[in-house]
Design brief:
The complex is a heterodimer.
Chain A: H1 4-23, E1 32-34, E2 44-49, E3 57-61, E4 65-69, E5 76-80, H2 89-93, H3 98-101, H4 114-117, H5 119-130, E6 151-155, E7 164-167, E8 170-174, E9 181-185, E10 200-205, E11 213-217, E12 220-224, E13 232-233, H6 237-240, E14 246-249, E15 257-260, E16 264-268, E17 276-280, E18 285-290, E19 295-299, E20 302-307, E21 310-316, E22 322-325, E23 330-334, E24 338-343, E25 349-354, E26 361-367, E27 370-375, E28 379-382, E29 393-397, H7 401-412, E30 433-451, E31 460-476, H8 479-483, H9 491-524, H10 532-553, E32 558-562
Antiparallel strand pairs in A: 1-28, 2-3, 3-4, 4-5, 6-7, 7-8, 8-9, 10-11, 11-12, 12-13, 14-15, 15-16, 16-17, 18-19, 19-20, 20-21, 22-23, 23-24, 24-25, 26-27, 27-28, 29-32, 30-31
Helix pairs in contact in A: 7-9, 9-10
Chain B: H1 25-32, H2 37-56, H3 60-70, H4 75-87, E1 93-109, E2 129-147, H5 155-161, H6 163-190, H7 196-216
Antiparallel strand pairs in B: 1-2
Helix pairs in contact in B: 2-6, 3-6, 4-5, 6-7
The chains are: A alpha+beta, B alpha+beta.
């Protein structure tokens, strides 16, 4: 226990420290909080932050989950986007797959008459539907699970609107609560044909007229006038065939929208109807952000601020993947391995956050004062501080990462990566195939001979009875398998082993990801957030990781440890 | 190559004036982060309620085990199948065979020296000799074949192991749904939406996840889960 004098000294020290912190420019740096446990687990693929109200945030995962929050990730809703394996009438009507919806070309590239080429498959499709037959082709993997969608972009509308996603299967639109989803643009099935089917790249709706939607795909830019339910190719030839990765609608001028391509920026000043080329970069563009100072262009060769006084290179020679203009002439700059805080007036650079190669940063988005940072497996909130307390009990990892991986291999019997099983074990051929035969035979033979030269009933009569019992043992050795055991690769074994090997690699990766996340959370939970709900969500996420690890390894991986109070 | 264009269009007008009004959002959030004693008391009470609800619900381990049992993908079952695949080496391939053969044969012999031998009038064909024979055989055969090398290695044991992948996928799905539901439940109890319609849809989402977990566990999950009441949405 502290005596009053110590308490006083401590209070003075704390007060002094607080004053120093307030005065120090270092303290001005934004606080970063891991809010990943509020969201479903990664790997994450996309981030959307409403720049007019950055507390409204949505993320998409690589396995088809979408989560969104309206209060800075304090309360998060989530849903799963399922794209069923069936021909979708909406997608066929949109003409997405040329073989089904028209647009086929002849060998010289000229468009064939769509009424001709669409007849056969569409008629077949309608016919199968009418007769009540299943319209999907059967493949063995179809019985396993619905395929996951990689959600490349999310659009979170104003409350009450329909959410939209651009995914590997095209564009999907939700109901007004995000509960169910309809594919309105994209391949009819869910296994994209690389040569024919489009992949959704970006999606956005007009901020004032949510019925007007722009969608970027690998087949060019599409537009919709009914909130994404039907799409047509964009009517402006300038942009209709362009590959666009992002749309940025000016929150303050509903007529201005930017379309960002690989190294070009198109701009529309009439609400997305007509676009003009506005900027050509010297390298690949990763992100574009407008701000009071001008337009920030994050590219593979650095960060450029394009303002009224020309181009100003803020960061040179490094691949910048995102940028958020911060307060007081500062800017947050995201590289794949670190988040930088740059003071534009003094040129000071500070590293706010680092990450490793296994969990690279993907995106940053937001507005001055509040932003969100997405890595492969984490979501960070930048700007709202979070108080922490000291925990009385802390979770402790009981096994090392490699021990968990080994335990998983042993428990699930997946073998080690060096152990291939594409041939039978040679030593097993030391044991023979043994055949034992038991045979019992019984029989009788009789004959009677009449000699007509003699007045007798018969001349000879005989009756023979025989019975035999046979017992045989055979032992066979397959010498070729014994001598050339390692070289008798069998086709079925090859298939089995390749399946096991793929499973093993995938599961090892899963285990590594879960273990890393669990370790980080266990460390953070030494000082859990004061907010009880956030702390609870952190605990739940740790449990989620631990439950998976304990299932695959068959061992206890995390346990609670009570901290001894310091004397 | 396209020359770099002036970005005059981008610099036009009110495009760069919007953020200042929103920079106060974190400050607002911080203000909200300092709750009154009454709010704190309510939060504590909500947290207690949530903890009570969570305690009464099935654990993640139970839920995982139910799902694995329902889909017959438990690790012990799969490991047992692999062991049994090797033990097949002790069980022979058995063959049983029973044959019953019945035969008759006749031999008629004429003698060229004495063509007329019908002495007693019973030899119309003038045979020298007639032999009639019968034979019958019964064979009983039992065979067993032991493929003993399967005791040491049977490729079926590897095949069985690939079922573990399905089990792992199932557990991952069940765990994700389980904790999605828990997060949703925590949100509903600790910070419910103020709009009754929003709350209703959150509750529907909760039911949706519950029913999916039910389907994955053979209807075992929902037996002890928390059920919402109409009073929650003001009915």
């Amino acid at each position: 226990m502290l005596c009053p004098v110590h308490k006083l000294a401590l209070a003075v020290l704390v007060g002094f420290a607080a004053l120093t912190r307030t005065a120090s420019p270092v303290q001005a740096q934004p606080e970063i909080v891991d809010v990943g446990p509020s969201f479903p687990m990664g790997p994450y693929a996309s981030l959307y932050v409403d720049r007019t109200n950055p507390a409204r945030v949505a993320i998409g995962t690589m396995d088809g989950r979408v989560a969104w929050s309206s209060d800075g990730a304090m309360r998060v809703s989530e849903t799963r986007v399922l794209s069923h394996r069936r021909y979708d009438a909406m997608a066929i009507r949109s003409g997405a797959r040329s073989s089904l919806g028209g647009g086929e070309e002849d060998s010289e590239g000229a468009q064939l008459d769509p009424s001709h080429v669409t007849q056969r498959p569409v008629r077949l499709f309608l016919r199968t539907l009418m007769t009540g037959k299943g319209v999907a082709q059967w493949h063995y993997w179809m019985s396993i699970t619905e395929p996951h969608l990689d959600i490349g972009a999310v659009f979170l509308p104003q409350p009450g609107g329909r959410m939209m996603i651009a995914s590997s299967a095209g564009i999907l639109v939700s109901d007004d609560k995000g509960g169910s989803w309809t594919k309105t643009l994209g391949s009819p099935g869910n296994m994209p044909n690389e040569k024919l089917d489009m992949v959704g790249l970006a999606i956005i709706a007009h901020p004032a007229n949510p019925k007007f939607v722009l969608a970027a795909t690998t087949d060019g830019v599409f537009m919709s006038r009914d909130a994404g339910m039907n799409f047509i190719h964009h009517i402006d030839e300038t942009i209709t065939d362009e590959v666009i990765f992002d749309f940025i609608w000016d929150p303050n001028d509903e007529d201005v929208v930017l379309a960002v391509g690989p190294d070009t920026i198109f701009q529309s000043v009439d609400g997305g109807m007509k676009f003009e080329l506005a900027y050509v970069a010297e390298s690949e563009i990763n992100a574009v952000v407008n701000s009071d100072e001008g337009i920030y262009i994050a590219a593979t060769d650095g960060l450029t601020l394009v303002g009224a006084d020309g181009n100003n290179k803020v960061l040179d020679g490094e691949s910048v993947i995102g940028v958020v203009p911060w307060t007081n002439g500062e800017v947050l700059v995201l590289l794949t391995d670190k988040l930088l805080h740059i003071d534009l007036t003094t040129g000071d650079k500070r590293i706010l956050q680092r990450t490793g190669a296994t969990d690279p940063f993907l995106r940053i988005d937001g507005s001055p004062g509040l932003a969100f940072l997405l890595s492969n497996h984490a979501v960070f909130r930048i700007g709202i501080p979070e108080e922490r307390v000291k925990a009385k009990t802390i979770p402790v990892m009981t096994l090392s990462g490699s021990a968990v991986q080994q335990a998983m291999l042993d428990n699930l019997g997946l073998g080690t990566p060096n152990d291939t099983r594409i041939h039978p074990r040679w030593y097993s051929k030391l044991l023979p195939h043994v055949t034992m035969d038991f045979r019992a035979v019984s029989g009788d033979v009789g004959s009677r001979t009449i000699d007509y030269t003699l007045p007798l009933d018969f001349r000879f009569a005989s009756a023979d009875v025989d019975s035999n019992i046979e017992f045989t043992i055979f032992a066979e050795w397959d010498l070729s398998s014994l001598v050339f055991g390692d070289q008798n690769v069998s086709n079925p074994n090859l298939f089995i082993e390749s399946t096991l090997s793929a499973n093993r690699d995938r599961m090892l990766m899963e285990v590594r990801n879960h273990y890393r996340e669990a370790t980080m959370l266990a460390h953070r939970l030494k000082n859990p957030p004061t907010d009880a709900k956030t702390a609870l969500l952190w605990r739940m996420r740790l449990e989620e990781h631990a439950s998976y690890l304990e299932f695959v390894s068959g061992k206890e991986v995390v346990k609670e440890q009570t901290l001894e109070p310091k004397k | 190559m396209i020359a770099k264009l002036p970005i005059t269009l981008l610099l036009s007008g009110a495009m760069f004036t919007g953020h200042a009004i929103h920079s106060s959002a974190p400050a607002q959030a911080q203000e909200e982060a300092a709750p009154s004693p009454k709010t704190l008391k309510m939060k504590r009470s909500s947290m207690k309620r949530l903890m009570k609800i969570l305690k009464g619900e099935p654990s993640i381990k139970d839920t995982q085990n139910w799902a694995l049992r329902y889909y017959k993908l438990g690790t012990s079952r799969i490991n047992g199948m692999a062991t049994k695949a090797r033990l097949k080496g002790l069980i022979p391939e058995v063959s049983l065979n029973f044959t019953n053969h019945q035969g008759k044969d006749f031999r008629n012999m004429r003698d060229g020296l004495y063509p007329e031998l019908n002495l007693n009038g019973t030899n119309p064909d003038n045979l020298k000799e007639r032999t009639a024979g019968t034979n019958s055989h019964m064979t009983f055969h039992v065979g067993g074949k032991w493929v003993l090398d399967r005791l040491l290695f049977n490729a079926e044991a590897l095949d069985v192991k690939s079922l573990n992948s399905l089990g792992e996928t199932l557990v991952r799905e069940v765990s994700t749904l389980y904790y999605s539901r828990r997060r949703l439940l925590a949100g509903i109890i600790l910070s419910p939406p103020t709009d009754p319609e929003e709350l209703f849809f959150e509750l529907v989402r909760l039911d949706e996840i519950t029913s999916t977990l039910d389907a994955l566990t053979g209807n075992r999950y929902s037996k002890t889960t928390w059920k919402w009441t109409e009073s929650m949405i003001g009915i």
